[in-house]
Amino acid sequence: MATITSPSPRSRWWILAVLALSVLVIGLDGTVLNVALPTLSADLDAGTDELQWILDSYIVVFAVALLPAGLLGDRYGRKRWLLTGLLLFGAASLAAAYADGVGQLVAARAVMGLGAALIMPLTMSVLPVVFERSEQARAIALWTVAVALGLPLGPVLGGYLLDHFHWGAIFLINVPIVLVAVIAAVVLLPESRDPSAQRVDVIGALLSVAGLGAFVYGVILAPADGWGTALPWILGGLAVLVAFVAWLARTAYPLLDLKLFADRNFVWGSLASTVSSFAMMGVLFVVPQYFAAALGYDALGVGVRLLPMIAGLIAGARLGTRSAARFGARVIVPAGLAVAALGLALGAGTATGDSYGWAALWLTVLGAGLGLSMPTAMDAILASLPEGKSGVGSGAVQAMRQVGGALGVAALGSVLSAVYTARLDTSELPGQVASAAQDSVLAAIRVPGLAADAVGAFISGMSAVLAVSAALVLAGAVLSAVFLPSRVADAADSDAESAHAGHDVSPARSA
Fold first, then answer.
1. Other C-beta atoms within 10 Å of 310: how many?
2. What superfamily does domain 264-501 belong to in CATH?
3. C-alpha span between 67 and 258 (Å, rounded)
4. In terms of Cα–Cα distance, which of 61, 89, 123, 76 is closest to 397?
5. Which long-range contacts (CB under 8 A, 24 or more apart) does 87-91 make?
6. How many other CB atoms are found less than 10 A from the CB of residue 197?
7. N or C of the chain: less Cβ packing under 10 Å?
8. pTM for the model
9. Of residues 122, 159, 480, the one with CA closest to residue 332
């Protein structure tokens, strides 16, 4: 029987700082590259398809590696594999910074995606090992804020660095953050694993990677190449995922225990989290373009003006953490999603000529709703996970969130494109100019006499995107209110004895 040596109360919060720093680089990398695409196109002579692969190589590898990454942590040690992920991410960032061709940059970005896939679920799975059940809600709220904080900071830092340094600087900023996180993790983080963890399900891992990979790739193809090209990939991916589920049901050592999906906390908490990711990534796809095209802000200005959403998220997370223990997930999660839906609905009412103040208002409301719902949903999920399976369970949740985010960009990007092109009249323009204007509002506003119509058409498309997002999030609120348990399950209390018997957690100094 293994003995747990729990970190001291002070050490626990230092450990959370390490975990927050680890996931901050992932949030940063999720958006920092977007502002650099024009520069990369010029400096590396990269076409549209090559730029897409620079972005998507990271997303595809990140999504497909999450499930196996969680299992590796459960079986072989979460600290060990978290450090591996950080080192991979840092080394690949360094390689990306000095890449002298598209192929090198795509390869480096793919390795960064693998590192991120190790970092994300393993930081989350460490939380229930390190923190007492009474502290987990607050810890998860701070972890969620750290993830979200990187999203608007990416364009802010990216815009500044691109204005003053070589484009490789947007990747170099990861290196010192990773080094600090690695040193702090070595010193502070206790090792944890499930000593009774099953052998690695190689067939299940291959099926999950193939199925998720094809599905996410198809979703990514949809906005650029159309659903006709994307649909075979999506359907093929779904078919492989069906085979994956069938394999899980019959094998003695499944990669993912299907019994998790019998727990309402896990299922409906995951749904709430995935819906939130869908909406947030959709917003981050359309709003920066709105700020640039309609309000005239540069890359740095765009990033700064996304900060109200983070301010709302921080405030919502603080309130949600305090309220969840009293009212339960069944109240707080739907309430947060309803507030987020309200923010999205307000954004859908944006009109031509509205000032930034209106956008700041609805972004703050949206952030507050996400802050209320997401940490409480994640707490419900972690409470449902057997502690020995926290890595692979966290990987499953993060995979669903990543797929939800990719779906958000693809589906909502298609909505934006359909409305924008339908509303924009380019019949009087030469063919090449008309095509460029229909592809991008940023190109359209540079065409003499077309700027006002292009901005109006884009705002119509953005309103449609936000309205669809609001409806989806509101549906998530209703489903959460109906199906989430009244209280977050006290899994940690009921499994306390098995946790002490089934985990090997050594003190940081001996790890």
1. 21
2. MFS general substrate transporter like domains (1.20.1250.20)
3. 13
4. 123
5. 87/115, 87/178, 87/182, 88/112, 88/114, 88/115, 88/118, 89/25, 89/115, 89/116, 89/119, 89/174, 89/178, 90/115, 90/174, 90/175, 90/178, 90/179, 90/182
6. 19
7. N
8. 0.77
9. 480
Please tell me the predicted confidence (pLDDT) of residue 69.
79
What pLDDT sits at residue 212? 82
pLDDT tens for 351-401 read 998 999 999 999 999 999 998 998 888 878 877 777 656 666 777 777 787
Q: Which residue has the tokens 């779904």?
A: 238
Query: What per-residue confidence (pLDDT) applies to 367?
Result: 92
Cα(448)–Cα(409) distance, rounded to whole angstroms? 30
User: What amino acid occupies position 119?
Assistant: I
- Note the pLDDT tens digit of each residue in 214-246: 888 887 777 667 788 889 999 999 999 999 999
| Angle at the Cα of 173 from the Cα atoms of 118 and 508, rounded to 5 degrees | 45
Helices (H), 77-132: 78-97, 102-130
What does the buried/exposed string (b/e) look like for 331-363 if buried means 16 or more CB atoms within 10 Å of the residue's CB? bbbbbbbbbbbbbbbbbbebeeeeeeeebbebb
Of 397, 417, 511, 466, residue with least CA distance to 63: 397
pLDDT of the residue at 41: 72
| Contact by Cβ (8 Å): 301, 357 | no
Nearest CA to 175 out of 107, 104, 100, 92 is that of 92
Q: Which pLDDT value is given to residue 506?
A: 39
Q: Which residues does 45 contact at the CB level (< 8 Å), separation at least 6?
A: none
Question: What is the rounded CA–CA span in Å between residue 422 and residue 137?
Answer: 46
Q: Are 297 and 355 in contact (CB under 8 A)?
A: no
Nearest to 396 by CA among 64, 149, 157, 11: 64
φ and ψ at residue 192, rounded to 5 degrees: -145, 145
- When the candidates are 1.20.1250.20, 3.90.1150.10, 3.40.47.40, 3.90.1170.50, the CATH number that belongs to 1-197 is 1.20.1250.20
Residue 449, CA distances (Å) to 70, 425, 426, 429, 445 in order: 54, 12, 11, 11, 8
- For residues 440 and 224, what is the distance between their CA atoms, to the nearest angstrom? 12
